[in-house]
Amino acid sequence: MKQKKDDSRYRNGVCNKNLAKPQQLFVQNSLAFNTVDSRSRSSDVWTSLPDITSPTLQKLSFSFDGNSKSKQWIGSCPELEEIILKNMENMDGSIFYAIKRLPKLRRLEIQSCKNYNRSRFESFFHMLAYKRDLVKLHTVILNDFNTVLPESLHAISRYRNLRSLRLIKCKIISADAIGMFATNLKEMDSLLEELMLTQIGAVTDGILVQVVVHIPRLQRLLLEHLSHITDDGIVQIVDRSAHTSLSLLGIHECSQVTEHGVGYAARRLSVKTNSSV
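Given the sequence above, the corresponding structure tokens read:
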């Protein structure tokens, strides 16, 4: 169904304003909705957002707080392949319930969301593991997701079909949790090909070696803003890579890694030194 030409809220896939009177919003391929002013947190603002009707919408990105509206938007777009949730507070189980009903979802990004329902988040990944032959989700990005606990990483590791995982500014993840995560991926014979670790203080040289050794199909390891990894860790990764699938190593703003470490890696692997975020 085509977008109405006189709808002032929708321009080039980005909806930036609210109208006082709720209306239906008809879109085709991609919609991004962002509320950035102080009023965006109030219930009277997000309840006035339009309802979406789009059987063909493939990408949905929004930044506002409101579980009922979020669930409605997701549930009304059965063809969604990509969802980006930003700056949401108090994410209840209804969001994950709506997401797990999307048969074509390929990419899920959750950014700066607080007070999410951890048990529903974990059960979502347990469900994916149970129905992995029917699920297409291959990329998960958790950005500024401060409450990723060991149990959450364990749940993610059970989903064997995940191809790319990006953990960005997940500050409370412990070294033991990452090590156990890598071990679980080995036990599951995981298909994970890409792992990004950004601004996670627990990441050390030893943890990176575990990651490379235990994740059987890892091809791309992206390291950014990691203050505890050193040239010695890079050397160990590269030396171990001869017996793994690793082919690309990203090193960006890792303060203890020098040109020596980067140069050593470049002899055997493709090395990327710019940010991937």
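The longest helix spans residues 118-130. Try to locate this feature in the token string yourself.
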